[in-house]
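Structure first, sequence second, as always.
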């Protein structure tokens, strides 16, 4: 199944069994009206929304990823994602996919640093039949020993293939330099040697710890009544712990409070330029990444400013670096700016593909652009263009049930709230030029950053 290098996360929802079921309908935007339900019996979060599209997508989000692993089990979250599809109490090996595909549906999954999610899309008529099968796979996987060994070899081959990918290699070097103490420096796929030593009892214990209802968000979006979908999920979801043990069960540990050799606080900002370079025979041109340690998703307002700064600096033909260095001076083949927010900390980076001899000139030009933003700020028309593009893209990308289920599941699993998801365009519209100038001053020093350069032989 799939995996991702992109991730955000934030505070975990904690369930209080004394509180009765809470149901709220979010209506900040007329076009969005998801209903959020917290099940009192087990703390499961359910989000449903009826939309006039003749399909339904169910997305099961778990607040666990590779950042919750210790080094000794690095890769377990992704390994377990693969094993979930190997059968359960209700379906045998490969049966879920065969049933779904015979009805024209599809399924997949993805693992990142702080979440794992499983999803399927089917017709509304098939929803009631497919739903309990998907939920049983997640809550009661068979984890057959022979498939465990077979999938171990599959994942080791994935790791070997990833090692031959120059872009992935460059990104891993960047994360290692950016986050030496935080678990984001470790690969989501895991280490080949570690994978070779993982055991099935370890996987069962990992599943028991993290795949709990208080750690789960089930999202269903499609042309079915919200109450109907909510009731179907409640009836189909059977936690894998005995009911009598619920009252004494503690919420799953988070990245902050689980036993770990990692500190529960962010890496300090760079105080000087930290560089690392290497040669790669697979490259035709040099690759360069400049990066800064920035706030994580827990500081949501700060990430918004950095998102917009990334768009102004290096996203699209009219952005500053693309227009100057690629379109005008032709110094790079490709250049882009991106802000990624993990739970405890984020990384703002500018990546370029370019002839090796242009590296000093391009690096200096990037520093000058950052200095210009800090000294002279952002033009209002420049900010308005990006505001419009960001808000429009955000809205246009939520047309399908699968898009909406991803939006709701991601934000609620990471922030225990949908407010940020539904009001994202409004948040962006409220930003003013001086907000971005201040953020550039605070986080994007032209004199202190990380730098990784990959050179062709």
């Amino acid at each position: 199944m799939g995996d991702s290098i992109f991730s955000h996360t934030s505070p975990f929802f904690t369930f209080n069994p004394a509180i009765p079921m809470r149901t709220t309908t979010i209506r900040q935007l007329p076009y969005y009206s998801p209903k959020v339900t917290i099940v009192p019996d087990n703390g499961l979060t359910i989000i449903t929304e009826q939309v006039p599209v003749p399909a339904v997508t169910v997305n099961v989000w778990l607040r666990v990823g590779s950042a919750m692993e210790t080094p000794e089990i690095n890769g377990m979250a992704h390994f377990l994602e693969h094993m979930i599809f190997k059968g359960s109490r209700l379906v045998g090996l490969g049966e879920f996919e065969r049933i779904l595909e015979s009805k024209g549906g599809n399924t997949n999954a993805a693992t990142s640093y702080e979440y794992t999610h499983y999803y399927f899309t089917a017709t509304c008529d098939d929803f009631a039949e497919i739903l309990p099968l998907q939920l049983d796979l997640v809550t009661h996987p068979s984890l057959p020993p022979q498939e465990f060994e077979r999938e171990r070899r599959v994942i080791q081959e994935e790791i070997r293939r990833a090692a031959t990918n120059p872009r992935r290699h460059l990104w891993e070097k960047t994360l290692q330099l950016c986050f030496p103490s935080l678990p984001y420096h470790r690969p989501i796929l895991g280490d080949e040697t570690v994978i070779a030593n993982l055991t099935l009892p370890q996987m069962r214990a990992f599943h028991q710890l993290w795949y709990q209802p208080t750690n789960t968000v089930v999202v269903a979006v499609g042309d079915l009544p919200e109450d109907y979908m909510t009731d179907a999920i409640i009836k189909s979801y059977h936690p894998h712990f005995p009911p009598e043990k619920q009252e004494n069960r503690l919420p799953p540990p988070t990245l902050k409070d689980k036993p770990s050799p990692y500190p529960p606080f962010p890496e300090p900002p760079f105080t000087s330029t930290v560089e690392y370079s290497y040669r790669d025979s697979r490259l035709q041109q040099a690759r360069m990444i400049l990066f800064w340690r920035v706030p994580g998703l827990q500081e949501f307002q700060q990430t918004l400013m950095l998102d917009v700064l990334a768009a102004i600096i290096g996203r699209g033909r009219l952005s500053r670096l693309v227009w100057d260095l690629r379109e005008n001076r032709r110094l790079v083949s490709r250049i882009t700016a991106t802000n990624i927010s993990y739970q405890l900390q984020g990384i703002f980076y500018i990546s370029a593909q370019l002839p090796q001899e242009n590296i000093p000139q391009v690096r200096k030009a990037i520093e000058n652009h950052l200095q210009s933003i800090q000294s002279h700020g952002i033009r209002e028309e420049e900010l308005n263009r990006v505001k419009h593009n960001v808000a429009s893209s955000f809205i246009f990308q939520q047309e399908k049930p699968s898009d909406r289920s991803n939006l709701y599941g991601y934000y609620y699993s990471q922030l225990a709230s949908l407010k940020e998801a539904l009001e994202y365009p409004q948040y962006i519209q409220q930003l003013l030029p001086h907000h971005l100038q201040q953020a550039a001053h605070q986080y994007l020093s032209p004199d202190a950053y990380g730098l990784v350069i990959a050179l062709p032989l």
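Margin note: The first helix runs from residue 76 to 84.
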